[in-house]
Amino acid sequence: TNQWFLPAVRGDIPPGCAAHGFVCDGTRILVFGGMVEYGRYSNDLYELQASRWLWKKVKPQAPSNGSPPCPRLGHSFSLYGNKCYLFGGLANESEDSNNNIPRYLNDFYELELQHGSGVVGWNIPVTKGILPSPRESHTAIVYCRKDVGSPKMYIFGGMCGCRLNDLWELDIETMTWSRPETKGTVPLPRSLHTANVIGNKMYVFGGWVPQSAGGEISAPDGEWKCTGSFSYLNLDTTEWIGLISDCQEDKSNLLPGPRAGHCAVAVGTRLYIWSGRDGYRKAWNNQVCCKDLWYLDTERPLAPSQVQLIRATTNSFQLKWDEVPTVEGYLLQLHADSPVPPVAGIPGTGVPETSVLSSQGGCSLHQSPQSLPSIPYPEMKVDHPSQTNNLIPNNVQAALSSSSKVEGKEKVAALENKVTQETMKNHADATGFKESNAPSLSPVYTSSAQTSANVGELHDLDKQSVNPDASVSCTVSSTQTMVTQQAVKTESSSTNGAVVKDETSLTTFNSKSEAAETACVTPSTRVSTGQTNDSHSSRAPQRPPAPVKTRDRRWYDVGIFKNNSAVVSQFYLLPEETPNINSKTEGADVPDYRLLKKQDLFPGTVYRFRVAAINGCGIGPFSKISEFKTCIPGFPGAPSTVKITKSVDCIHLSWEPPASPSGNILEYSAYLAIRSTQLQENPSQLVFMRIYCGLKTSCIVTAAQLSNAHVDYTSRPAIVFRISAKNERGYGPATQVRWLQGKATVTHS
After folding, report:
1. Is 425 a member of any domain?
2. What values do phi and psi take at 296, rounded to 5?
3. DSSP label at 284?
4. 599 with 714, same domain?
5. CA distances from 182 to 145, 179, 186, 196, 235 (A)
6. What angle is formed at CA 271 by the lines to CA 266 and CA 275, rounded to 5 degrees?
7. Is there a single domain that holds both residue 72 and residue 181?
């Protein structure tokens, strides 16, 4: 949301302090030392439980082989496993805080943590090799190579009367210090900079650097300046790569300004930089505090999860996919089984690449707008916080999941079936996403106001009908056919079903090899023998397959979405001269959708979907392909709002009736996935037993029936139910329920 908030903390709230040590371990934060006031330093340790916003002052045991750490500031405090590593800092030799006698430290401690909360005590490890020289305002990070598995701590830079740019390595397993040899251009000596690890790189930004050209200052009161230079160290090859040089001009304010004493944190593959102070001399009255937030995208995002189906109608799909952290949007594409004619005479438009700052980077740094429902794209410069950029084309609708409690129970709110009429602001300048091998910068504006870009809200169901779990595996036939036998086996195929949430009506799909993992859609299946009972089945009319030319097998853009869900009723047709766009991850432009014609979805038609995440470095790889079919008119929808209530010796299932375009609902059927020898051979082929058939919208599942249940392990262990409704046309699609370890998760398939 890009919104700051001030939590209501309680407990042993620590006094304000500067230059302290700070680590985050899950939902708890540990703070050690720092300057409480000028000349008075601290060696207190505080723990914040962020899940409860509760502060607690903790008292570790003193080390058995020495004294505990003395009060200090400017030290490093690094977390690895269940231990924090403390190195160096600045102490005051004078007992009088007004008479500050600085003493630089190079002592080394480890602090053992208790699991979840609390600490054990300090220890002074016995180390080998030469200790780094005393220093403060340095950085320390811990990195462990995946193939080697030996964690190492790296200390860089700092201050000991003059700025430093030396690199030290500590092998944590052997407790051996060393000075690794590096390649490339070493960054200028600096202090009060930041260093963060993303992947196998240590990113170093900002800090105080010497004003003199030589980099070394002998006089303690020599001049220095803040820098905005930016480099990274490849920790596998120990090679320095410069991204932004100290002398690089930034007349357009596309880069973070020079600063020191700022903070930086890595979230996934994104690096956030906040605040700091700027100044060119030591005098405090020449320094300016920064209040801006920036982020750096270091690589293209990972592929999202498979597209999942929430609801299908005769001419639309409600879709979702799992969120990818720290992305700015998602590109959703579809592929139609029936050939879609290209549109002649509609030119596609591209967007210029982002500003090139260096040829070495492979990352992109941005500043994004304040109080916006959407985060702008890297090619866009936002001049005012009130500017918004809608990432959702006018043929789709996005939704957020939230909870609204009424009298202690969560209500269900259906999505509005309307479409957004907003279009993307400055679209011709903002919708092109090209892979950039160099960093580009833009700011993150923040706000305290709540904003929302969603058209409708998708609320969680009753607590017995909660969020989706993950995917289950099953495949179905392409006709809506129910059978009378108790054991219903799904038709053989290589597809896997994705499970999603909310009251959805899903339809059957054709299993194709291209859809390697697609969403399963209905319990309406043929028995493996092919025998069916006509009185209990209704076969949907089949459209004869049309010949498809190779050039027609294209992926068409549905649009770019800010959130991870959408209602899709149309897609964009490509100009005839546009080549096949199967490789948008290679830096192809996203066209200007305003210049493209749209095509409605057809009833009873199979569509394949894939989605890719977008950040400042470009469009990432696409997800695995999902395949869904729009509903055939006349059949009932899927039962909704399924709830599971557990009693001592049975389970009670209940559901809401679906819409029925062709007469009243004649009956409901409920099925339970059961154990079978076929499941051992192919876990993707679920075998179902019908446990209820009748007019009531509820049923009881006995303990005897549950004793035969198959436990599905495609994600978390769950028992799988399916419920479908029948009208005069036949059985419609089913709602699938995954019951997780004593609580129900409503999902649909």
Report:
1. no
2. -120, 120
3. G
4. no
5. 17, 9, 8, 18, 10
6. 105
7. yes
Structure tokens at 218: 């002998």
Cα gap 451→682, rounded to integer Å: 48
Total number of domains in the chain: 3
Residues of the chain with pLDDT under 70: 212-222, 279-287, 338-553, 576-590, 679-684, 714-715, 741-749
CATH number, residue 307 = 2.60.40.10
Domain extent, residue 99, equals: 10-211+223-297
Q: What is the dihedral of CA 235, 241, 246, 248, to 10 degrees?
A: -150
Q: Is 675 exposed, middle or buried (0-12, 13-18, 19+ CB in 10 A)?
A: middle
187 closest CA partner among 195, 176, 179, 177: 195
The pLDDT, as a whole number, for residue 716 is 74
Same domain, 606 and 707: no
The string of DSSP letters for 127-179 reads -BSPPPPP-BS-EEEEE--TTT---EEEEEEEESSSEEEEEEEEETTTTEEE-
Neighbours of 705 (CB within 10 A): 16
Using a 10 angstrom Cβ sphere, with 0-12 exposed, 13-18 middle and 19 or more buried, the burial of residue 383 is: exposed
Q: How far apart are CA 626 and CA 617, in angstroms?
A: 26
- Alpha-carbon gap, residue 377 to 386, rounded angstroms: 16
Q: Indicate if 195 and 153 belong to the same structural domain.
A: yes
Same domain, yes or no, for 172 and 319? no
Separation CA 335–CA 560 (nearest Å): 16
